[in-house]
Each structure stands twice: as structure tokens, then as C-alpha cells.
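Hello K.,

You asked for the raw outputs rather than the summary table, so here they are, unedited. I folded two proteins back to back in the same session to keep the settings identical. This is the first:
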Amino acid sequence: MEKIETPDIVRPPKELVEKLAHIGSATTAGELHRLGIRDPHLHGPVAWTHGKTVVGPALTLQFMPKREDLYGEAEYSDPERQLHRHVLYHTQPGDIVVVDARGDMASGVFGGMMLTYFKGKGGAGVVIDGCIRDWPQVQELDLGLWIRGVTPNYHTQTNIVPFAVNSPIACGAVLVMPGDLIVADDDGVVVVPIKLAPELLVRASQHREWEEFTRLRLLQGGELRKYYPLTDEARVEYEEWRKQQGK
């Protein structure tokens, strides 16, 4: 059999990833809109491991409708033909696997063994517009998971087959390029075009800081009209607060 070769991704500086980890998906989505990306939210996958926040580069996997003359193998007949394995072979610490599974609710893209391997390689999270299987075992791995659901079926048992690794995909109706940054938490999953990530970080950090001040004032009974968003009057207070905080 001819050896399958799949491309790796270009990963961003770790410092950039670490700083974005403190921003959150809601602030990220709002600031991306101001940078010209109207809707970066991946519709469909939702948090299954609540309380997790992950930020990292996207390893991408594309599924296509099954056509038996091109793909007729059973689950274990020729494992190395199965491209869902090959995307995991690229895993480095902090990576996030993003899968266009076409919203299919009958095929388990990854199971317990595959996700155990991913966890062991340092993978941070999995985003699938579709399902996984072996949920009782998978939930013990403490991985960040954003999926549509679970199924007992394996990945090619029904309607879809893995087709391409680290190519552009449409996950949750949003274009994801290999190596784009993913920001995922309980609000959902947002894709950050890598070229916009540095400017996003600057804007989002400023946004997060004034919201911290605003939240404090609102809890103290402050007026919404004054503090959200900041009026010129409130901004004077905000700058004084920043000095007191040593910022």
C-alpha cells in the first residue's frame, strides 16, 4: 500500500496563544466583528465538558459523504487508510482538532482509544460538527469537547468518511483554515484568522480590562447608562482605577 502523507500546520507563537487564553469567546467574537469578521462562531458544536477554556491552533479534518466504490472498508480492515487517525498523528501539545463531520449525528468521528492517544500527546480540545462515541470512557479524559452529541456507531459505519487532513474546512458553517486559532469555552467556539490574532489580542485585552472595571461599578449599584459602555465621565474614573491597580 502507498504510504499516506498529510501536511502539518504552522503553529503561532506560544506567547500569543497564552495571552488569548484569558480573553474568552464572547469578547473574541465581538472584537473580531469590529475587525471585519461578521460571525466567527461555529454553529452546532456545544460544550460537553463544562468549565473548560481552550485556545490553540487548529488541526483540521474534513469528512465527505460516503461512496462505497471509493471507501468500503470495515472499521479495522486497513487502519492506515483512515484519515481520522492521520490528523491525530500531527498532534503537538496545545493543539485543537476541528472536524467538519457535516453535522452527521450517526457517525462517531473519534472513540475512546483515539482520544486517549490525543490526550497523551498533549492535545487540548476537540471540536466536531458531529459526534463521538465511547462517551463513558471519554469523559474520564478531562478533554475540552465541543460536539453535537454521541453515538455508538464508529466513524465510517453509516454516511460519512474522512476525506482530507489539514485542508480548509467548513465547520459549523464557518471557514476554518489549518493553523487558525480556536477559542472555545462554555459560550461556544470561535475561529480567529491567524493574521488577525495580534491585533485582536490588543483590542480584546483593552476590552476585558474596562469590562472588569465596569462590572465592579455595576455591582456597587452604578448606572448602566454611565458605565456600559464607558461614557467620557466614567472613563476618567476608569483611568484612575487603572492607576490604583498598577496597570
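The second followed immediately with the same parameters:
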Amino acid sequence: MTTLEIDRDATSKPSTSRNVDMKLEVVVIPVSDVDRAKTFYARLGWRLDADFASGDEWRVIQFTSPGSACSVIFGRNVTAAAPGSARGLYLIVSDLEAARKDLLDRGIAVSESFHGAGDVHAGPDEPYLFGSVRVSGADPKRGSYSSFASFSDPDGNGWLFQEVTTRLPGRIAADDTTFASQTDLAAALRRASVAHGEHEKRTGGHDENWADWYADYIVREQAGQEMPS
């Protein structure tokens, strides 16, 4: 059974007893130089939420990446983990090349886009991922969850961009369509526009109800449902 099949099985059996939300909101990353790390994450364009200190013994800094509900914290005496040991930190983006260009424009080194052979997408310096086979370039079919790029902070904490345009079934409810940012919404509208153009070619005419068609397409895409014809 593949990882994808396991995920689908899991989403087909939602919990019926859960009555308390458990929201992942903070991830701790270990750094050796707090001010250097602060400068780096500010250069990424992330929002600085906090910089608290208590004398010389304790300091915590919190940043949040654009559109994210989860933040990262680092500082002095925040974690006993070795600096640079946080790996496989995923940043989900709707447009991989746009995300890469943003980092490059900010002077941040980022890998070329890549995809995996089969169920693996790691590189030789990323043993924390599944396997060790990396294929250059984005996924030829541009499948959701299939294209990546990587970068690291000054300590070597490893980050990955993963391009996700369509969620697997069960990952989001059809009546709960949301977008983390204006950029994600604009990308969804562009995909709907392209698909609608193909729809009009098939039907042989102008669709006056294009707004309803767009809405149906975007809701189905986020819910991982079959696309409108």
C-alpha cells in the first residue's frame, strides 16, 4: 500500500468522538545565533510577532510565514535540540516557481525545483525525507503534492516548498472553502479561468454563467472532488 493510499484510507474514517480542536500553532527551531536567525527570517518577509527577553538567560522570537496559521519560535534557552537539527519543515505554496522567485529576489539561496521518483523525493543531504531519489525539475504532470524546492537557514534547519493546488479528498470540506492569502485566491481564479476556457471550447459557446462555474470549480478543487465538465 502506498503512502497516498494510506492517507486516503485515513481520511475516509473521521473520528466521531473528537470534541476538542487541536491546532498546531507553534514549531520550535534550534539556532546558535539568535540575532543572525532573526535577520534571516525577517529577510524571508515573514511577520515578526514577538521578541521577548528575560535578562541574558532567556529570549524567544516568533515569526509567522505569509498566510500561515502556524508560527516558528527560536531563541536562547528555548530548546535543548542541536542548532540546525530541525529538518523537513514544509511550506505549502500554490505556485512553486513564484515562491522560488520571491526568495531569490530577497537574496536567499533556494534549490532548483525537483520531484521524486515514485513515492520518494529526497536528496543526499535530506535523509529525513522518504528515500534518496530526486529528479530535477517540477513534476512533469504538475500533480498536486508532487513538486518541491528546498532552502536552509544559517544554522542548517531545512525547509521545503511543496506545491499543492488540489487537496486530497477529505482534507477540506466542500462547504469550507478558504484561502490563506490573496495570492492563493488569485492562483485558484487563474486555474479556474484556464479550465473554463476549455469548458467553453467543449460546449462551443460563451458561458454567461461563468461566475457560477468558477465558484463550482474552486470549491470542488479544494475539496478534492471531480471537476465540472
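Residues 86-165 form one domain.

Happy to rerun anything if the numbers look odd on your end.

Regards,
P.
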